[in-house]
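User: Run a structure prediction on this.
Assistant: Running it now.
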Amino acid sequence: MKLIKYLNFLGLKSKENQNRNIKLDSLINTLGYSIHSTEFKNIIKELNCTELDKYWDVRSKDETFRISFHHKSDHQNRIGIPKGLVTFKDDEPIVYYIIFQDLDLFEKKTPSFELPYLLKAYDSKEEVFKKIGNKPYESYKVNPPGKTNCFYEFFDYNNINIEAYYENNSLIELMFSKFTLEERSKIEFEKKIKEQRKNINPKFYDNVIHMINELPDLTFGDDNRIEFAKSINKELVEFTENCAKFTKSKNPKAIINSVKKVIEKINIVNLNNNVPIETIEREAICEFIDEVLKTTGLQNIDEIDITEDWREW
């Protein structure tokens, strides 16, 4: 121990220190912290990085990873209160996301660095799931030119959003960020929807189908809107029938997807109509959709406007 201290005093490193691996979990933990914070400075001094550049990035000098920043005011509005603030300026840089774009290159150039959560280049999706300990909350395939079997998976790990990119079921790229307030709200909503399977009863099928008799009168006494009202009600009938079908199979996610589909179809009807949907029609349509959803057994539907994400009217 005395030898190590003596070598450090001379500005030299012991073999023990030279071989010490740097775990980048600590870097991920600085998401949401100020660039001036002690937490960020303590980890960044070990990583051989550039200064903050004009793009508001700090990069490893061997170009194996990048730390991106945004303004304190942006962080407060979109994510939450940043940590480790040093100034009162709205443009104080806050760690926004951290990306490793080529994990193979990263491991070759920085063998003393360990990726967060023991992840490694070319891990299979099964290995990634095992190491993170959570199933992905979302995944989708992509088709880049000259590539096959490429897809993204997104994980929620202690309020950190992990984006994993695979080629041929091998992990190629990673990005870490904090969830925005909007993203967190959507994830929580998805969880609540899955939990509602217990509230959906196949015996409600007839009640849902009966809602077809409760279609709103969207003409509001205006004969010029009869055809327009028929077009929308046709889509609402199909929506109601789908909800009844998925009530019988106790599938809350499919019921919610039915909302997305009907709203997108009504968007097209509205786009092709000379007289757009006004506030009174919008309220009637949305109220009908809410009532159908309640009839399936879904609860707490009134808490949010479930159509807002897809509605263009």
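The radius of gyration is 26 Å.
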